[in-house]
């Protein structure tokens, strides 16, 4: 029992020494002003924070997130085709895709997809 305790303490001591060595060896010695400054979406962090930016970037990001989440919701629909009634699954899928197409039409109608100002 005592031998098991000594071996486990030895393993813990060796792993702690190895973690400490990796921390010391992985330190970067080259410090640069550009590398130490935060990256803020292409904006200069040393200038004014109240600079207006194009709303198109925000709208394209929102559109991407909406369609990305909806694709994540479509995958379980594919798997549940085998478990449910064919007619009810087709109604659910048709409604889901119809909502996607209505949203895409609305974005197109509001000129959110055009990049011109």
From TrEMBL:
Subcellular location: Membrane; Mitochondrion membrane
Keywords: Electron transport, Membrane, Mitochondrion, NAD, Respiratory chain, Translocase, Transmembrane, Transmembrane helix, Transport, Ubiquinone
Cited InterPro entries: NADH_UbQ/plastoQ_OxRdtase_su3, NDAH_ubi_oxred_su3_sf
EC code: 7.1.1.2
GO MF, one example: NADH dehydrogenase (ubiquinone) activity
Membrane disposition: Multi-pass membrane protein
Transmembrane segments: 6-25, 55-78, 84-105
GO cellular component, one term: mitochondrial membrane
Keyword Transport in annotation: yes
Top-rank taxon, per record: Eukaryota
Catalysed reactions, semicolon-separated: a ubiquinone + NADH + 5 H(+)(in) = a ubiquinol + NAD(+) + 4 H(+)(out)
UniProt function note: Core subunit of the mitochondrial membrane respiratory chain NADH dehydrogenase (Complex I) which catalyzes electron transfer from NADH through the respiratory chain, using ubiquinone as an electron acceptor. Essential for the catalytic activity of complex I.
Family, similarity comment: Belongs to the complex I subunit 3 family.
Protein's name in the database: NADH-ubiquinone oxidoreductase chain 3
Organism from which the protein derives: Papilio polytes (Common mormon)
């Amino acid at each position: 029992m005592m031998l098991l305790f000594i071996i486990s303490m030895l393993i813990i001591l060796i792993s702690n020494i190895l973690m400490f060595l990796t921390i010391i060896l992985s330190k970067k010695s080259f410090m640069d002003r550009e590398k130490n400054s935060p990256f803020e979406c292409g904006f200069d962090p040393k200038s004014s924070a109240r600079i207006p930016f194009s709303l198109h970037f925000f709208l394209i990001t929102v559109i991407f997130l909406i369609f990305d989440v909806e694709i994540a919701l479509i995958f379980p629909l594919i798997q549940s085709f085998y478990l449910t009634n064919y007619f009810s699954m087709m109604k659910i899928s048709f409604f889901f895709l119809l909502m996607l197409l209505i949203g895409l039409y609305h974005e197109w109608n509001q000129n959110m997809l055009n990049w011109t100002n």
